[in-house]
Amino acid sequence: MRRFEEAIRRSKEQLQRVKERIAERKEGKEHAYIIDAHIMILEDRMLIDDTIKTIKEEKVNAEWAFRTVLKRFVEIFNSIDDEYLRERVSDIEHVGERVLRNLTGTLHEGLHYLKENVVVVAHDLSPADTAQMVKEKVLGFATDMGSRTSHTAIIARSLEIPAVVGLEKITYTVEPHDTIIIDGIEGKVIINPFQKTLDRYLAIQKRYALYERELLQLRDLPAVTKDGRVIKLMGNIELVEEVSSVIDHGGEGIGLYRTEFLYLNRKDFPTEEEHFETYRKVVEAMAPKPVTIRTLDIGGDKFVHWGGGGEVNPALGLRAIRFCLKRKDIFKTQLRGILRASAFGKVRIMFPLISGVEELREVKKVLREVQEELKERGIPFDRDVPVGIMVEVPSAAMIADRLAREVDFFSIGTNDLLQYTLAIDRVNEHVAYLYEPFHPSILRLIKGVVDGGHRHGIEVGICGEMAGDPEYVVILLGLGLDQFSMNALSIPAVKRLIREMVYEKAREVAERALECSTASEVRRLLKRERLFVEREFLPLEG
Length: 542
Description:
By secondary structure, the chain is α/β, with parallel strands linked by helices. The chain contains 23 helices and 14 strands. It is 48% helix and 11% strand. It has an eight-stranded parallel beta barrel, surrounded by four helices. Strands 1-2-3 form a three-stranded parallel beta sheet.
């Protein structure tokens, strides 16, 4: 037990030193927040107490006991449907490996000592390893493990280091001193390429560098069409450290701040103070630009480790706002944290998965109760904080004109809207081909939401993956959307497209697209009008 406690202490000291090294650097220092999250895992009482209990009761060594407890944690997270939440398994495993190395006395070589330019190939890289990378020395990296939502991938995007993760067997394929091309846009790794291939990629590299310079020149310019239509371009974030990327790429605020990460790696729910401190950091960093905070969007089936039960069909069950209304204690705690943070900048509150007016009114009633509580406690907050909803189910889209009377803004969540409208699971390989954003039903629903919102004078935005995809920007612009929120890296390219467009032309084409019978007809229309945009160079989510 003493050995285990000493390994925990040493692991925390090592992560603290990593955090200090990151803080000394010019770029990437915002990633210290991820290191804080890893330190918090090491302080988790369930992790520590269960390990000590296992040592006592089963009379096994610390390594075995700790690995047994870790395995239980991993099994819980692997049962979660949501990709982003499931990927937090890697954070638990990285922390676990550090503790096990300290228990066994194994040394760990970091990447901050590199003296020459390299491509790093590894089974996996921890966020601590990635955050310490020297951008000038690490030309790119490839790993067996990981996904686009892992902290390692998020840091790589923020540092703009080309990376391809989740390759499964790259470490078995590559030898030291091999020549490697890392294509982080297409997700390709080419080992020992022919000279012709190498020359082609060197040319692409030069062209991409020029493309980046051109886009970043637009950073401080507005997203305005040639005939004067102004569009707000915002960033989607999940973590505090992503704020700087939104600012650097010309974002006009945060259009979607996902808050689910606060509920991970713990057996209890976050406190009001934890909510407040986390949101305050984001709000202060973005001030005076707005931050749209989405309340908890997770299903009751995801809380198995808090005593919740699984559901036969969780996508249609107790999730998002439904879970919050069932557990108003949890909901009110988050709302208090959000409202308190609103005293430090411009905050907007957004509720997910609203399906009808009665449900929305119940949510607003809870919000008013929390506001009254804060008033009684004498705690400052924005008394006029804007309130909006995500429109992501067909029922909400169909009554958008009614819902618009109740809120200050709409944000269309196209990812769920497509799945619920077309009755498909896009991660199911058997039906993924049916996931079609240009489906006429989707375009008509979006148009209906825009018209319903504008009829009552509220802003209508979009925060799904369609917002950052150049293929869809022209149609979305023509449908009359006021705001696009996307991956920060996509903002400059979307801004360039908008600045090259004539809004009236886009509106005319969108009206004709609404008359099409199939997605293929919509694409043919765009090609005839020479408005079909290829995805060249654009780093898309997914």
